[in-house]
């Protein structure tokens, strides 16, 4: 649709004078006013920065633009084109001023209104409003506003400029608004109120509601860092030490604000951060918690220089591991890994880890549990870095040449393992066939990654302290210790370093001891921690076998006894499960035997199997649900999966088939998952 005000513009002084005269004579006609304001705006836009270009229209134009019918008009079209004319008039007259001071306030009110229109990028006024912003930027005419001494007007301009940035307008208007804000805020007399308007964009709810304005505010602060540094440092120090007297609405979000500022203008905070030490020692537990949360984030940021600048602050922060408030101690433990990896040096990493380890004897169960988890996670990170690819994953095949191998039988290793006769006797006790070792190369552990496992004696020392929690009075702590220690072993194993692996073999060996002595923990170790094997579900059979070999070599006699008990238990469960499945198949199908004796034998087999599982009552519920399944293919698949001579591939296929047939969310599926 054609614009009603489109026209042909010659842009010369004579045309301008004619437009101005017609505008002056038609101030009561809104449509005529809009038409000629638009003509004048286009003519002024094409004019150079020279008052003489206005010709005979100069005096009349100055007067007509501040006429009450224009400057005070409520009509949007009148206001937007009047603002455009006024912006160009200020440009053409610069560095002089075409109006007396008493007219500047309504002029800048009008310009401010036009800036607000930038927020709606789909509005027909958007391009004209953007031209106003560009023109103000070009001539720096905002200095006239700053010289007026109207702080409330300056505040309103800063707010409006920030509010005008959004997803739609940021691409076109963002750079111009950023430049305009930097000009206004960069004034050496910038007030705290103006700073607070900017800072409020960095924290919720405004940072969430308008992330584009948040980004612009950060850029403004960064661009004006040198000029506003003293005012901002004074403001933040007051906010920390005297939040109430600061009269700032941001005092409740002080720590969030400091964190955001550190990511954009970190140098400004260098003299501010030491004041947080007093907050760490505040009598108010909530204040200490907030200070801990902030400092943990700051010291954990990649590339943070706070560690070198403020070791005393870090020392005070680490003292909060001993805080009387549980939430503070838990927050410190949750941040342990990030702190240890963020502080950089081995000495400081050791300090962080050992300080965290003091919470292993905390009187609160959940703190001890958190300490176990934090230390094991941090140990994994310090030993091998970020979690490597799991054994047996796609990386294994792609980098097979990098894999560590165990070539059997080396004489010294076989001497430690014992004679083949001893192994054959042990196999006979378990009721399985014995096959003498071959001389093939068996993959040990490793994903083919080139991870370097660090040899850190202090990590081993701290892990020894974690292993003591396997005897904790609370089962939740013992479970966490078993899970954590096994995760450290798996991480080192996945890195493929045979030498370092030998140094952590004691971890699963220590866990295996619990199977023999701790009935509660035994169920967790079998059902959860080691359900997917020693190395996890991705390990190949060869890798798992090699890992078990290393464990056996490094184990004490007590640990070997515990392992044999586990193996005997698993062999018994497997045999009982096979007997149950065989009887269940016999009691159904074409040639079914549904005699009372068969039913009695089936019930007895189910009871025996349930008693051998970690949670007999729960297992019996699963067995009853499984016995009610009508599909005999389920039991055929289970029989194949449980057979001693079944390959890993056949086992996986049979297991998947059984689960698919009973439904993945059924009670029967839960039992099958536990059994297999």
Give me a quick take on this structure.
The chain is mostly helical. 67% of the residues lie in helices and 1% in strands. It has helices at 13-25, 30-45, 58-65, 68-71, 76-93, 101-116, 126-139, 142-147, 151-163, 170-185, 192-199, 206-209, 211-223, 225-241, 254-264, 276-280, 285-300, 306-309, 311-318, 326-334, 336-342, 346-357, 365-384, 394-398, 411-417, 420-430, 457-467, 475-495, 498-504, 506-517, 519-529, 541-554, 557-586, 596-612, 616-627, 632-642, 648-662, 667-675; strands at residues 405-407, 441-443.
Account of the 3D structure:
The chain is mostly helical and 676 residues long. 67% of the residues lie in helices and 1% in strands. The chain has 38 helices and two strands. It has a two-stranded antiparallel sheet with strand order 1-2. Helix 17 (285-300) packs parallel to helix 20, helix 17 crosses helix 21 and helix 23 (365-384) runs antiparallel to helix 27. It is elongated, with a radius of gyration of 39 Å. It starts with 12 loop residues before the first helix and ends with a helix. Residues 1-11, 388-420 and 437-450 have low confidence and may be disordered.
